[in-house]
Automatic annotation (TrEMBL):
Domain of life: Bacteria
UniProt name for this protein: Dipeptidase
Peptidase M20 dimerisation domain span: 223-372
One Pfam family hit: Peptidase_M20
Species of origin: Microterricola pindariensis
Length: 476
């Protein structure tokens, strides 16, 4: 917290200020949705195969919205060097950094979101064009409409509501960090924190990049799984051979790969890799019917794993094959394949270091390689799991703001996915409380075709954050 010149106190009571916040969020909602739609029209994919000019345009559009708020002392578009990998040392994608110092002993809050988006995939899988936002019913459809340009706009709209309620001369310190490459691995994130540590110092950090329990119930994410991904190449032959001439005596790489991958799961689909741990946690009620409805699980297909469904998603490890390099069906020939490569993605339960999980996975694969197949593991990437200490003051304030905005108490949830950069925030700012919030719901389909934002959820998420900011501004 910082101490500077005293300013005259706001003459309105806290109740009056919060009522003004509510009114501002309500009246400004059409404008906020229009601004969000403008951001969605920018195809800001940070992946190397896409035009980086779109990410730059997106950063500039976000910076313009932030400058219009009129309350930040600095608003900059900044880049930092990529930390690791083949591109180490090159500049990452543009991020927006805005700062406003705290006054009169008030806390500082860091607001994080990201303006880059996933690739659209096949346009034919969308009911409308990915980058042409469309409202159907109570949902706004478009790539990034939920993940995470809605998070960006939740920050902008909540700050705007605070300004309209108390004026520009408030005491709360705010740092705004809108990243430009979260969907591309946050490759310069760690260096960005180091390069801008002083500007990003905060008492609480709001990460608006998660989901809610449903469209009527808010959630605070208190557990995230870590992740380990790598490329596995299985080789059994020096060169391809005729399957008719030598099949039955020579193991081909495809067969070896299938046998090896199958060894990583039990018959019920539970992970069977010794050394991968689970986290003991209580989970809310969640039925198989709800799982089917939210995932599109086919009627004849059963769920996998053991334990409560949410413990499987939040607190147990997974092993998934997310890609394979092999001859296509169209190009298949009667050939024994000499080598097959797959991409393996493992989610790591909270409490287990990612490096320990990788060691367990590597040991299992090498111990179970069939017929002496040669294994090569490369392109390893790891992210740490995260557990929130829910006893802190910022968690209490956030939960109360959610309850008041939604009219329903929030649920503590885990997320099956990973946000690896959280561990970077914990490392650089160990005293800050981290609040993982979001604007999504189970039907948002982030990363998938027909991604969408429920506008009622969005409104309540903005109100939750705006009330939180108003209360932090009054916090002694």
């Amino acid at each position: 917290m910082s101490e500077t010149t005293q300013t005259p106190p706001n003459t309105h009571s806290q109740a009056q200020i919060e009522e003004a916040v509510r009114e501002s969020v309500e009246l400004d909602l059409p404008r906020t949705i229009a601004e969000l739609s403008s951001l969605v029209r920018i195809p800001s994919v940070a992946w190397s195969a896409f035009d980086p000019a779109h990410v730059q345009a997106s950063a500039e559009a976000v910076a313009a919205l932030v400058r219009e708020l009129g309350v930040f002392e600095t608003v900059q578009i900044k880049r930092s060097a990529i930390a690791d990998g083949d591109d180490a040392g090159q500049l990452g994608q543009p991020a927006v950094l805005a700062t406003r110092a705290a006054r009169n002993g008030r806390p500082t809050v860091l607001l994080y979101a990201h303006h880059d988006v996933q690739p659209p995939g096949d346009d034919a899988d969308w009911d409308s064009e990915p980058y042409q936002p469309v409202v159907r019913g109570d949902r706004l459809y478009g790539r990034g409409a939920a993940d995470d340009k809605a998070g960006v706009m939740a920050h902008v709209a909540s700050v705007r509501a605070l300004v309209e309620a108390v004026g520009e001369d408030f005491d709360l310190g705010i740092a705004l960090f809108i990243e430009g490459e979260e969907e591309f691995g946050s490759r310069s994130f760690a260096n960005f924190l180091i390069d801008n540590r002083d500007a990003l110092q905060a008492d609480a950090i709001v990460v608006a990049d998660s989901s809610n329990w449903d469209v009527n119930t808010p959630a605070l994410t208190v557990a995230l799984r870590g992740n380990v991904t790598f490329k596995l190449t299985v080789r059994t032959l020096e060169h391809a051979s005729h399957s008719g001439m030598f099949g039955g005596a020579v193991p081909d790489a495809m067969l070896a790969t299938i046998r090896l991958l199958a060894s990583m799961h039990d018959a019920d689909g539970s992970v069977a890799v010794e050394g991968l741990s689970s986290h003991d946690t209580e989970t809310p009620a969640y039925s198989e019917e709800q799982l089917r409805a939210e995932t599109g699980l086919l009627p004849g297909v059963s769920p996998i794993g053991r334990g409560s469904i949410l413990s499987r998603i939040w607190a147990q490890p997974t092993v998934t094959v997310t890609g394979i390099d092999a001859p296509s069906v169209a190009n298949a020939s009667n050939t024994l394949a000499p080598a097959i490569s797959v991409r393996i993605s493992s989610r790591v339960a909270p409490g287990q270091p990612a490096s320990e999980a990788f060691a367990a996975l590597e040991a299992h694969l090498r111990a179970h390689a069939p017929w002496g197949a040669e294994l090569t593991i490369s392109e390893v990437d790891m992210g740490e799991a995260f557990l929130v200490d829910t006893s802190g003051w910022a968690v209490r304030e956030a939960k109360q703001a959610m309850a008041d905005a939604w009219g329903v108490d929030p649920v503590d949830t885990g997320i099956g996915g990973s946000i690896p950069f959280i561990s970077d925030l914990v490392r650089e700012f160990p005293q800050a409380e981290i609040l993982v919030t979001g604007v999504e719901d189970p039907d948002s389909r982030a990363h998938s075709p027909n991604e969408s934002l429920h506008l009622g959820v969005f409104k309540r998420a903005v109100l939750s954050e705006a009330l939180l900011l108003a209360r932090l501004n009054a916090r002694e």
